[in-house]
Amino acid sequence: MATPKYNRVMLKLSGEMLVGDQAMGIQPATIGRFADEVKEVHATGVQIALVIGGGNIFRGLAGASRGMDRAHADYMGMLATVINGLALQDALESRGVYTRVMSAITVNEICEPYIRRRAIRHLEKGRVVIFAGGTGNPYFTTDTAAALRAAEIDADVILKATKVDGVYDRDPVLHKDATRFDAVSYMEVLQRGLKVMDSTAVSLCMDNEIPIVVFNLNDEGNIKRVLLGEDIGTRVYSAAN
């Protein structure tokens, strides 16, 4: 494998990516494929941190829309991310990849509390670190958690794994003539309301100059291709760069 473009990366996965062809939950074959790809790139020496959403189990915003208290629903969503983090940890460690799950909410019996310096030390020792529990606060998404943790650990890039091959000017599922961007600035994303990450997450990345690469995780091998700097997906960056 060629030399990776990045040394330390934040990989953001949505919980829905773990569903596979099921309606809900975690499909073992799907999470196993993701673990295989992470193992392959981890073997090159790249330091890998991950944030996984919980939408395959419970989404706080959806619960709130059905009449549930928003804060209560968001805490339930945080617990869902812990479940997903433990599932991915199991898949990675069964493949010989040392992994730590660190949670922003206290679940000491099953994962470590999030401590920034400890997380960085785990990465330096070659362990994959999965950040669970969101930011530990309601009203913030796991996109924002990924941006926050990426800033805290000084990640080189956020790799936003999705079901589409980049950022479009409008929904490509509904509009067949939608145009994909090869690159776009943070400000344009915010001004045009492009579907990359939520506005808080994008603003955090802009303030800390953390580039975002949006790519299709369903195309096998794409994590490796992004790390090698291949021209896939959409890069979100400062207009000055």
Name of the CATH homologous superfamily: Acetylglutamate kinase-like
Could you state the oligomeric state of the chains shown?
A: single chain
- The CATH topology turns out to be Carbamate kinase
Name the beta content range: 15-25%
Q: State the distance separating the first and last CA atoms.
A: 27 Å
Major sheet description: 9 strands, mixed
Low-confidence stretches: none
Please tell me how large the radius of gyration is: 17 Å
Overall morphology: globular
Provide the succession of SSEs.
EHEHHEEHEHEEEEHHEHE
Put simply, the count of helices is 8
Content-based structural category = alpha/beta
Write down the overall mean pLDDT. Answer: 92
In brief:
By secondary structure, this protein is of the alpha/beta class.
Textual characterization of the structure:
Helix content is 37%, strand content 19%. It is α/β, with parallel strands linked by helices and 241 residues long. The chain has a 9-stranded mixed sheet, sandwiched between helices. The protein has a two-stranded antiparallel sheet with strand order 7-8. Helix 5 (142-152) runs parallel beside helix 7 and helix 6 runs antiparallel to helix 7. The longest helix is centred in the middle third of the chain and has 24 residues, at 70-93.
What are the salient characteristics of this protein?
alpha/beta, two-stranded antiparallel ribbon, 9-stranded mixed sheet, Carbamate kinase
